[in-house]
Amino acid sequence: MDFSSKVASKLLLDGLENGENKNMLTSPLSYNAIMNMTAIGSSGATSDQILEFLQHKNMEEVKSEFLKLKEITKTKGGDAPVISFFNGVWINKEYCLKNTFQEVIERHYNALVRNIDCKKDDQACQLSHYPSGFIESPSVDPTTF
């Protein structure tokens, strides 16, 4: 089992063991995207550790894997299943991304980058609404977001 599946399983099990009585959503694909974006933004020993964790030899493998995932999610038409995902990076307003890193995650990962005030509840609550309109599957219940 790869790391993203392990994370998803752990979150679901923790929720069930803690008596969570609500719907839970977890996305191994999202965890993979997060780790790939983190790898791209890292350097030195941190980069080496993340590459080892992701079981990649170099950053080109990281980029190549994600490009394959992006290709799979393109609508094929007909009766093919529609797979959609949304990448977003929210940064506390007190911090900023390096321009080169922001350009890579916006262009390569199609990620929406926003600075927010994490201390304001109204902005934190809006996070779950950002993907609305980006996910193309007509079967998504509009009350999900």
Automatic annotation (TrEMBL):
* Cellular component GO terms, alphabetical: extracellular space
Q: Which InterPro entries match?
A: Serpin_dom, Serpin_fam, Serpin_sf, Serpin_sf_1
Q: Which family does it belong to?
A: Belongs to the serpin family.
Which Gene3D superfamilies does the UniProt entry name for this protein? Antithrombin, subunit I, domain 2
Protein name, per record: Serpin domain-containing protein
Q: Where is the Serpin domain?
A: 8-125
Enumerate the SUPFAM superfamilies for this protein.
Answer: Serpins
Q: By its UniProt entry, which Pfam families does this protein fall under?
A: Serpin
**Gene Ontology MF terms in the entry:** serine-type endopeptidase inhibitor activity
Q: Which organism is it from?
A: Lithospermum erythrorhizon
